[in-house]
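HOLO CASE FILE
Compound: DTB
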Amino acid sequence: MASSPAQVQALLALPFNDLIFQAQQAHRLHFDPNAVQLSTLLSIKTGKCSEDCAYCSQSARHETEIEDHELMPLAEVLTAARAAKESGASRFCMGAAWRGPKQKDLTPVLDMVRQVKAMGLETCVTLGMLKEGQAQQLAEAGLDYYNHNLDTASDYYDNIVTSHSYEDRLTTLSKVRDAGINVCCGGIVGMGESREQRAKFISELASLDPVPESVPINLLVRIPGTPLDKSLTGAEQVDPLEFVRTIAATRIVLPTSFVRLSAGRSEMTDSLQALCFFAGANSIFYGDELLTTDNPGVAKDQALFKALGITPMKKKHSETVVTNLQSGIHRPLTAG
Ligand code: SAM
Ligand code: DTB
Ligand code: SF4
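Model generated. Tokens follow.
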């Protein structure tokens, strides 16, 4: 699928029904349309981050009401991972509010990765920028995914973050790729960017080579005390249908990637989430909390899945995509 910024913009401008139909077709070509992958998040180190990301509750430069804590002990992490597995998650994602880990930070995280993996869960971490050799250490510990978002279009990035650059993000992503770890890379919608910039952002995600296996699309959670909460006017907030369009365009240009309906679900109606799944989202964060903000919670999501006939996905990414492509499965819309 060609995906220049102009081509993605043309997708975003399609009549809504045509856009969703194309997204459904792309989705059904590569995935079971009624299965959604579940990852549970845990903030293993919260707050006091040196970076100035304008959306984030965890920057030491913003006055937000969060409870900071240093790196969690291994036993607590394992208790949370066990609970996540029991409630049905297939992946456990550990996030730390660092610019990047020092070696003394990384060593205990390697243990967490080894032991969570030994429980039979897929592992993901998001630790900020990586230095030479660190991705390799994570790969040797058995890490499955590294989350590192481009967050927005390259030409809008400096409006959101000044303490590191878009180029820095790309450098870490290539270290992760070179170490053989799956890449989880997406961003945030609703930070005051234009539709043109949203199209450019999606096009830039699709131009990563190889493309990311997992693409989280977060709807901005406005956190009191963050610069974005102060500066965004009501008019700049993204319209829910524009958010669905963004999911659909992402599905079309990244047809073999998991598209994760990420932050912002707590403020969405069931109908809006259903539209996002219809537009091709096939992965969510599952559990009561994201990093510092609320998520719908297991009981609510189980009820929503039941209402929609969605089942949690058991297969790993490589199994899903390769199997469907090899067998040429293309479920027609009527066949269910
Ligand atoms: N420090 C690491 C980093 O910057 O990559 C990892 C943690 S960071 C919180 C992970 C991602 O969460 C960000 O890149 C952003 O996409 C998302 N995120 C953070 N705060 C958010 C918010 N208020 N609303 C929506 N997404 C948010
Ligand atoms: C991602 O793209 N979204 C997740 C995960 N990667 C680490 C984080 C969302 C954070 C939402 C705001 C918060 O809870 O602090
Ligand atoms: Fe720090 Fe990551 Fe938050 Fe930026 S997004 S302030 S790097 S924790």
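CASE NOTES: Confidence is low (pLDDT under 50) at residues 322-336. The CA atoms of residues 28 and 335 lie 11 Å apart.
CLOSED: yes
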